[in-house]
Recover the amino acids of this structure.
């Protein structure tokens, strides 16, 4: 027998697809609230405390081999040669400009350095609040260079932006309609539907729709850097005066009409609008400073003219609100920063991007300290792939394995994590072009899978080992001693 809750959600999902096509605009007004209805609130459960993941998606393929760079002279020489040597088209950062790392004792960090515009990331790393995961990417199974020629051994559509981003979002090499963040919340949320609007959605996006946060029965709740958007032309909230008040009264009368709500479409429309308006009121009230309310206020000054900083500031405000009012126990946030597809103008363009990334991440860390949540919130990067070491003249092209970073009080920072969880002096792959794990232009075969990286964070969020296998089906193909890469405390 069909579960009526599942049937209702299936109806809403199909209706939201119709709305996205534009064909339902005249049929059901204000369909922006559809995601509000599908974003199931997460009620406090037995996991205890509060934890949140914040995904910082670097769209376009971050040239991460120019973010984290060998500093030891021999390895730096290989890096410099592979990036173009002393040619005018070279992409190498001069060694004297690099920011040498120190990090944790015995970590071998002094052999490595950061881009000169990432000084605040260097500070977080040296304070052991940030870690790097080296040579990671999409994989179906461990693969050697000799095995690459067999298409069955590698993930589909390598070097394609859309396909690789999709694989990062779903956490598996197979196509999936839901992402690993949303599927994780499917498991973590209580096994009963929410009973009121006094809870926030588990997945909140400040950067529009994304597959990463889609679950089996919900879509991410979407906000902007300014907050939430109410219904136009009516009261937000009720009541109000004038023409908006008249329209609001008519809408409320329609929603309360028994004959209207008895109809399948009418009933679902009522549920959509009521749920959406309830969440709007909850969040809008929480972010307001009226009557001295400070539950959604952050005093940390974020950088100006920095779109990532604007997004992370709203995330910080929402985390403060969630914790202050007990509105969520587990959450996942999504922000997005684009411009990394630098086929030309790479050196100058990447410098600007890393400056903004470093500044925004540092202020987010400070804001988490302001609200006492540094150990409860883990921010991490994803990007579809790294870029070729060799230049195409003024930039670089799509590659494969790269470097990602994780920041938070629960991070075992000041270390580099690589194949098999190894931490130390040999963290980097050989950067010789066409080397043991690279191709002719420096496209690296990953030593760590997206599955291992993301499963480590999902486990920290609260998933048990047996639950991880259902969400990350390829995880079993990798070394079982390193299902958890070890960069987060329990």
């Amino acid at each position: 027998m069909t579960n009526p809750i599942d049937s209702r959600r299936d109806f809403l999902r199909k209706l939201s697809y119709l709305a996205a096509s534009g064909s339902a605009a005249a049929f059901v007004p204000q369909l922006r609230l559809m995601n509000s209805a599908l974003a199931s609130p997460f009620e406090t459960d037995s996991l205890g405390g509060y934890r949140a993941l914040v995904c910082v998606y670097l769209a376009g393929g971050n040239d991460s081999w120019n973010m984290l760079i060998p500093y030891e002279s021999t390895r730096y020489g290989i890096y410099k040669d592979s990036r173009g040597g002393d040619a005018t088209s070279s992409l190498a950062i001069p060694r004297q400009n690099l920011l040498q790392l120190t990090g944790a004792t015995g970590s071998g960090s002094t052999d490595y350095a950061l881009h000169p515009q990432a000084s605040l990331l260097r500070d977080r790393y040296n304070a052991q609040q940030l870690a790097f995961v080296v040579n990671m990417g999409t994989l179906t199974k461990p693969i050697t260079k000799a095995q690459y020629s067999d298409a069955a051994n590698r993930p589909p559509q390598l070097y394609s932006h859309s396909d690789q981003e999709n694989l990062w979002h779903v956490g598996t090499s197979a196509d999936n309609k839901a992402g690993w963040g949303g599927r994780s919340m499917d498991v973590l949320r209580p096994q009963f539907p929410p009973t009121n609007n006094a809870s926030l959605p588990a997945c909140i996006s400040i950067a529009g729709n994304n597959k990463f946060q889609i679950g089996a029965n919900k879509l991410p709740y979407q906000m902007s850097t300014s907050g939430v958007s109410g219904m136009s032309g009516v009261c937000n909230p009720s009541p109000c005066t004038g023409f908006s008040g008249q329209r609001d009264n008519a809408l409320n009368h329609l929603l309360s009409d028994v004959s209207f709500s008895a109809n399948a479409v009418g009933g679902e429309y009522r549920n959509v609008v009521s749920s959406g308006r309830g969440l709007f009121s909850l969040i809008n009230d929480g972010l307001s400073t009226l009557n001295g309310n400070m539950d959604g206020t952050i005093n940390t000054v974020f950088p100006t003219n920095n779109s990532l900083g604007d997004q992370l500031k709203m995330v910080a405000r929402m985390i403060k609100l969630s914790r202050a009012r007990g509105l969520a126990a587990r959450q996942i946030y999504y922000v997005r920063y684009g411009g990394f597809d630098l086929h030309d103008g790479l050196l100058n363009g990447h410098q600007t991007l890393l400056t903004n990334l470093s500044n925004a991440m540092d202020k987010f860390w400070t804001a988490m300290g302001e609200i006492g949540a540094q150990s409860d919130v883990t921010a991490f990067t994803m990007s579809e792939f790294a870029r070729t070491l060799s230049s195409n003249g003024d930039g670089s092209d799509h590659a494969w394995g790269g470097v990602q970073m994780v920041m938070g009080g629960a991070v075992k920072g000041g270390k580099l994590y690589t194949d098999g969880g190894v931490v130390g002096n040999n963290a980097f792959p050989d950067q010789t072009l066409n080397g043991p794990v690279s191709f002719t232009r420096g496209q690296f075969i990953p030593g760590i899978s997206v599955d291992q990286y993301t499963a480590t964070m999902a486990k920290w969020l609260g998933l048990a080992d047996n639950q991880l296998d259902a969400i990350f089906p390829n995880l079993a193909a990798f070394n079982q001693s390193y299902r958890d890469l070890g960069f987060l405390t329990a």
